C-alpha cells in the first residue's frame, strides 16, 4: 500500500523529467517513450531498494544509462532514423489562437532550432547540459547521476554552452 | 604575451557566458554589464548568449504521453514476489504455527458431541437402572453361594469326608 503510494508520487514527480531527458538524448520520440516506460517499470521493481531522498539521482542515472545503452546499440546497427516532431505543427496551430501568430511562430521555430542544436551536442556535454539547464538539477546532483567530479560538471556545462552557440550560428537566419 | 592575451580573452568569454546564463556572481555581472556598454564586441557576445539562455530557461519539460503512464497500471497491479528478512520470516512462521494449532484445537473441540440436559438425565437414569440390575444379579449370586452352594455342594461333602476320616481314626 505504502509502496504503491510512494511509487505514484515518484512517477508524478519524475515522469516528464525522464521523458524530456530521454527525448534530448535519443532524438527519437518512440525510443524516448520506450526508455521512459522501461525506467518507470524499473522504479516499480526496485521500490524499497533505494532511499526516497536519493530517488532522483537513482532515477536519472537509470534513465541516463538506458539512453547510453540505446545509443550504443544504435551505433552498432547503424540505422539511420529521421526525427519528426509530430507535435510541431500542432504547437504552431495551438499558438495561432493568440493574437500574434507571426511572432509566436517565429519563436516556436527558434525554440525548435535550439532544441535541435542541443540534440546535436556530444553525449557527455548534452547530458550535463540538459540536466542542468532544462531539468534544473544542481551541480552536486549531476555529479551523482553521471558519476563525475563537480569541477568536470562545471567545465562540461561551459563547453556545452559554447558548443551550442557555435551550432546555432550554423543555422541560417538564427537571430539571437 | 600572445598566450596571456588569449587566456585573458578566454577568461573574459567564460565570464560573459556565466553572466548571460545568470550563473556569475553579482560583482562579475556588474563588471560585464559595464564592459558591454563600452565594448560592442562584448555586448554582441553577451546578447547572443543571453538570448539563448533565456529561451532555454523558458523551455517546459516535455510531457510524457498518458498512454505510457496508463500502461504501467498493468505492471504495478502484478504482485511483486514476496521477499522477507529472516526476522520477518520467523515472526510469520510463529504466527502461522499458532494459527494452525488453534484451528486444530478448535476442530477437536468441535468434534465432541454436545448433549442436552434431558439426554444427560436420561442417560443417568439408564446407568442407575443398569447398576441396579447388576446389583440384583450380584445379590442373587451371593445368596445362591451362601445358601445353596456353600452348605449343600461344599459343606455337605466336606462334612461327609470328615465323618469318614473320623470313623477310620477311631476304628469304628
Describe the structure.
The complex is a heterodimer of chains A (176) and B (172). Chain A has eight helices and no strands. Chain A has helices spanning 2-26, 29-45, 55-77, 88-95, 101-119, 123-134, 139-146, 150-169. The model of chain A has no long low-confidence stretch (mean pLDDT 82). In chain B, helix 1 runs parallel beside helix 3 (40-57) and helix 2 (26-38) crosses helix 3 (40-57). In chain B, 9% of the residues are buried. At the A-B interface, helix 1, helix 2, helix 5 and helix 8 of A face helix 1, helix 3 and helix 4 of B.
Write the layout of secondary structure elements.
The complex is a heterodimer of chains A (176) and B (172).
Chain A: H1 2-26, H2 29-45, H3 55-77, H4 88-95, H5 101-119, H6 123-134, H7 139-146, H8 150-169
Chain B: H1 2-20, H2 26-38, H3 40-57, H4 66-77, H5 86-111, H6 117-170
Helix pairs in contact in B: 1-3, 2-3
Amino acid at each position: 500500500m505504502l509502496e504503491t503510494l510512494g511509487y505514484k508520487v515518484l512517477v508524478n514527480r519524475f515522469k516528464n523529467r525522464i521523458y524530456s531527458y530521454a527525448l534530448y538524448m535519443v532524438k527519437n520520440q518512440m525510443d524516448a517513450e520506450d526508455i521512459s516506460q522501461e525506467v518507470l517499470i524499473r522504479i516499480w521493481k526496485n521500490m524499497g531498494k533505494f532511499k526516497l531522498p536519493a530517488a532522483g539521482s537513482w532515477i536519472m542515472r537509470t534513465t541516463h544509462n538506458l539512453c547510453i545503452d540505446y545509443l550504443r546499440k544504435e551505433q552498432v546497427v547503424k540505422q539511420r532514423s529521421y526525427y519528426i516532431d509530430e507535435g510541431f505543427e500542432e504547437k504552431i496551430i495551438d499558438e495561432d489562437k493568440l493574437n500574434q501568430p507571426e511572432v509566436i511562430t517565429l519563436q516556436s521555430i527558434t525554440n525548435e532550432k535550439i532544441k535541435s542544436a542541443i540534440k546535436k551536442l556530444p553525449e557527455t556535454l548534452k547530458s550535463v547540459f540538459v540536466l542542468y539547464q532544462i531539468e534544473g538539477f544542481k551541480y552536486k546532483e549531476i555529479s551523482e547521476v553521471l558519476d563525475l567530479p563537480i569541477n568536470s560538471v562545471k567545465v562540461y556545462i561551459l563547453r556545452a554552452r559554447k558548443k551550442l552557440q557555435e551550432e546555432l550560428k550554423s543555422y541560417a537566419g538564427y537571430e539571437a | 604575451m600572445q598566450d596571456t592575451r588569449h587566456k585573458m580573452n578566454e577568461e573574459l568569454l567564460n565570464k560573459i557566458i556565466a553572466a548571460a546564463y545568470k550563473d556569475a556572481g553579482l560583482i562579475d555581472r556588474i563588471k560585464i554589464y559595464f564592459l558591454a556598454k563600452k565594448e560592442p564586441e562584448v555586448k554582441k557576445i553577451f546578447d547572443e548568449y543571453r538570448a539563448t539562455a533565456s529561451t532555454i530557461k523558458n523551455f517546459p519539460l516535455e510531457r510524457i504521453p498518458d498512454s505510457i503512464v496508463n500502461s504501467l497500471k498493468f505492471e504495478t497491479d502484478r504482485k511483486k514476489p514476496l521477499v522477507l528478512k529472516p526476522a520477518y520470516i520467523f515472526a510469520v512462521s510463529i504466527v502461522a504455527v499458532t494459527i494452525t494449532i488453534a484451528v486444530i484445537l478448535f476442530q477437536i473441540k468441535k468434534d465432541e458431541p454436545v448433549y442436552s440436559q434431558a439426554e444427560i438425565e436420561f442417560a443417568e437414569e439408564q446407568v442407575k437402572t443398569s447398576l441396579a440390575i447388576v446389583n440384583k444379579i450380584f445379590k442373587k449370586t451371593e445368596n445362591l453361594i451362601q445358601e445353596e452352594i456353600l452348605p449343600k455342594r461344599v459343606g455337605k461333602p466336606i462334612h461327609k469326608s470328615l465323618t469318614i476320616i473320623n470313623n477310620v481314626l477311631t476304628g469304628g
